[in-house]
Amino acid sequence: MDYLAGRPEFVARVRAATVKAAVAVGAEADDGTEHRRLRRALSVNVLQEPESWSSRFARAVATSAAIEIDSLDSEIEFSVNSVWNSVAGAGAEPAPAA
């Protein structure tokens, strides 16, 4: 994990995926839940400081056994999206109200 997360070329690819995810999360409808607020707050932070957040996401993404230095961009994007809630502190998305 440390090997991969410390590679500048990997961190750059994670940065691109993280910014892409931040734009998508920022465009989500605001339903007023704490879950959504936390996701959107991380989106703003990532867009304001992508350099800082890319190394954090690189460490999280590198924990996936499926991710390697030559992973496809789509695999890195999927992994970034998979850890977004954890990094945001948002937990799992709440079930819709009945």
Q: What is the secondary structure topology, with strand pairs?
A:
Layout: H1 2-5, H2 8-26, H3 34-48, H4 50-62, H5 73-88
Helix pairs in contact: 2-3, 2-4, 2-5, 3-4, 3-5, 4-5
Please name the defining characteristics of this protein:
5 helices; 68% helix; mainly alpha
How would you portray this structure in words?
- By secondary structure, this protein is an all-alpha fold.
- Helix content is 68%, strand content 0%.
- The protein is built from five helices and no strands.
- α2 crosses α3, α3 (34-48) crosses α5 and α4 (50-62) crosses α5 (73-88).
- The longest helix has 19 residues, at 8-26.
- It is globular.
- It starts with a helix and ends in a 10-residue tail after the last helix.
- The mean pLDDT is 93.
Briefly summarize what is shown.
The chain is mainly α and 98 residues long. It has helices at residues 2-5, 8-26, 34-48, 50-62, 73-88. Helix 2 (8-26) crosses helix 4.
Helix content: 55-70%
Parts with pLDDT < 50 across at least 5 consecutive residues? none
User: Which structural class do you get from the secondary structure elements?
Assistant: mainly alpha
Main beta-sheet annotation: none
How much strand? under 5%
Apparent shape = globular
Question: What is the rounded distance between the termini?
Answer: 42 Å
Output the number of helix runs.
Answer: 5
Number of strands: 0
Radius of gyration: 14 Å
